[in-house]
Structures are given as C-alpha cells and as structure tokens.
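Aim 2, interim progress: modelling of the magnesium ion-bound target.
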Amino acid sequence: MSEDPVQTHVLAIANQKGGVGKTTTAINLGAALAASGFRVLLVDLDPQGNASTGLGIPVSNRTFTSYDLLFDPEPAAVKPMDTSVPDLQLVPATADLSSADVDMAPDPRRLHKMKDFLVDRAREIGVHDYVLIDCPPSLNLLTINALVAADSVLVPLQCEFFALEGLTQLIRTVQSVRGASNPRLRIQGIVLTMYDRRNNLSGQVAADVRENLGALVYETVIPRNVRLSEAPSHAVPAIVYDRTSSGAIAYQKLAAELLARLRKERPLVEQV
Ligand SMILES: Nc1ncnc2c1ncn2[C@@H]1O[C@H](COP(=O)(O)OP(=O)(O)OP(=O)(O)O)[C@@H](O)[C@H]1O
Ligand SMILES: [Mg+2]
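Predicted structure of the complex, ligand included:
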C-alpha cells in the first residue's frame, strides 16, 4: 500500500521438462539475490519439495506450506520460514501439494489462488523485493497459478540435444496466460544450464538456442559443476557451500544480469 515503496517482483522459474535445473536455479539465484542485499522469498511449488530439502528444511518443520498458501490461509497461520541464508525466506512444499490440482478444481478462482494470496495479501507474508516460484515439471494448474501471479518467467534450459523441445509449448502457455489472466506477464529470460565446455554438443546447443531465441537468452551460462549438485545434500546453496566454485560464481553473475535486465524492463517476449 501507499506507505510501502517496495515493488515486489514475482519471478516464476518454469520449464515443464524435468531435471533441467529449475530448483538449482531457484535456490542459487535466490541466495545470490539475498547476498546482494535484497529480501527474497522462495515459494516451493513442487510436491517433490526439492527446494525445501535443498535449503535444509525437514518435512516435520514445514508448518506453513505452499499448499496452505493456495487455500486461503488464516492470517495467523501465514509464516514463511527463515533459512540459513539471511534475507532468504521460504514457503516450503510437502507431498500434499500433489493433490492441489484436484482440490482446487471446483473453485472458480482456481487459476488465481497464488495471485490472490501473493499479490493481494502480500503484506501478510512480509516485505520482499523478489518472490521466486520453483515450479513443478509440468504445465499443470500449479504452474498456471505461478504464471498468473508472476511478473515474469525465467526458463532454465539444459544444454542437451532436445533442449528446445517443449519450449514452444511453454511460450504458448505464457502467451495464453497473458491473454486470459495476466497481461503483464513476460518471459524474463532463458538461462542455459549444465553447460559442459569439454563437450562439443553443449557448445552447439548453446549456439543453436542463441540463434533461435536471440536476446531472450542470458549471456550468463551455468556450467555443469559438481558443487551445485552436492550443495543440497549439505542443506545450503552453492554460494554458501563453496563460494568460489564455478557454479556459485555463475549464479552470482546471473543475479547481476537479471537485475540489469529488470532495470531496463524490456518486454523481450515480443521478440519470439
Ligand atoms: N549446473 C549443474 N551442474 C551439475 N549438476 C546440476 C546442475 N544443475 C542441476 N544439477 C543437478 O541436476 C539434477 C536436476 O536439477 P534440478 O533439480 O535443479 O532440476 P529441476 O528442473 O528442478 O528438476 P525437476 O523437474 O525434477 O523439478 C539435480 O540432481 C541437480 O543437483
Ligand atoms: Mg525441481
């Protein structure tokens, strides 16, 4: 409201393809933004709960979850959790989120549940500069809820042979959400993940993606880096686990590039 000058930016991290680096990006980009002085809320919107586990929140401690957030919680119940990273808070997920699609189905506001809470009841969850939503590997009702609530979408794309497969469908979904429910939604960018510079295929895929998608693709490329895959088992982001690792450095660069792009606020999706 008027006395609060903070403009929260809601960023959905989405790709219906599994295992492309959505959760790794949500955790490490979130941590990098928090380390840059921003207040960040990560919403784990995947029933797998990988972001919650990767940030060291045991299932037994997940009291206020993303399922609760979607189902009109009492104000007193709204409690995002602190993580080991200062200024990085979390709304964790539990397996009960897997029934959310079915449970929301009879509700005429089913596409807007996330927005109704995150945007319209934002003050209850505290002040954040960025809300990052880690989406499940599907274009289901959960992902649509994230897209309806979001200002923009960040798409991690794995450097592998079929990288572009499925992207058309995701772009079409973004366009249809924009047309029907959320006119401000745009694709913020596409980030290439798991890039292996010793593998020619990675270079070819990166070149191909850049040729097809041009300025949508971030200059920053996330390398394949074992520290990024080890960090979740130590319950911390890579930036805490090994600040000097190539993965941690890449996510800090990605955060800087994202911030620079947001300052320019170009509707890049119109280029595809
Ligand atoms: N840059 C990277 N280098 C090495 N390993 C990575 C990298 N990015 C992700 N991984 C590993 O790859 C696996 C898949 O990554 P992640 O869980 O982030 O993908 P996802 O898109 O969230 O998957 P899902 O679709 O199942 O939610 C994980 O084991 C993760 O640790
Ligand atoms: Mg994931």
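The radius of gyration is 17 Å. Residues 22-23, 46, 50, 134 surround magnesium ion (ligand 2) (CB under 6 Å).
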